[in-house]
Amino acid sequence: MQSHARPAAPRPVSETEDGLDVPPDLSVAGKPNGKAKTDSVAPRLGVNLRRLRSRRGLSLERLARRSGVSRAMLSQIELGKSVPTINSLWKIARALEVTFSALIGPAGEGTPVVVKGSTSRFLTNASATFSSRPLFPLDRRHRAELYELRIKPGCEERSQPHAAGTFENLVVASGALEMTVDGVTYPLESGDAIYFNADAAHSYRNPGKADAILYLVMTYGQGEEGSEVGLTIPEP
């Protein structure tokens, strides 16, 4: 997910394999254009992480051991000073056994919620070649979640197997996609869809010359609706 000297001025940090602090490679932006910057997701994520960790009686050290994300990084997240990488966010969600939306959004109840395209937030990777936009109210009461994915030409994004009972249903809105599931590659074009059990390693690759735009529905295993426990979140 090399070591840099820490500057005098405070700055957001991101998790690395060595536990060192580097500029974040998870961006939250109005547009997936590679110039994204952290916004209100950081403090909201910090509050949610602290609440969920406390409910489970976990110290920062225990959560660090469970998730593989360093204690220093977890502390920075809880203080609202850092947004982790996409991979680190999935590790934390798995360790807490919660959905991705339980970490990044406030609870919502009852009334209709409009998700405006003009003010939407994208989560992007370091090179801004892969981005994900939640298309659902950001609360924790979902057994299914809908995302818009955008993949630049030549980009390949790999995902580890998700928890048993997790399925992905993906439709290509525009562009081309090579979807590989458990070592088998399925070429998809605009209008094509694929549905698969996501408990096997899988990857998304754009072999075309234009951006690929995809819509992904993730569904989770059976469990008590609205429960934060017993659910794991797959990574797009």
Strand order of the largest sheet: 1-2-3-4-11-6-9
Question: What's the β-strand tally?
Answer: 11
Q: Give the helix proportion (percent range).
A: 10-25%
Please state the second-level CATH architecture of the domain at 27-104.
Answer: Orthogonal Bundle
Secondary-structure element string? EHHHHHEEEEEEEEEE
CATH topology heading of the domain at 27-104: 434 Repressor (Amino-terminal Domain)
Morphology call? globular
Strand content: 15-25%
CATH class category of the domain at 27-104: Mainly Alpha
Round the mean pLDDT to the nearest integer and report it.
74
Number of helices: 5
Brief rundown of the structure:
The chain is an alpha+beta fold.
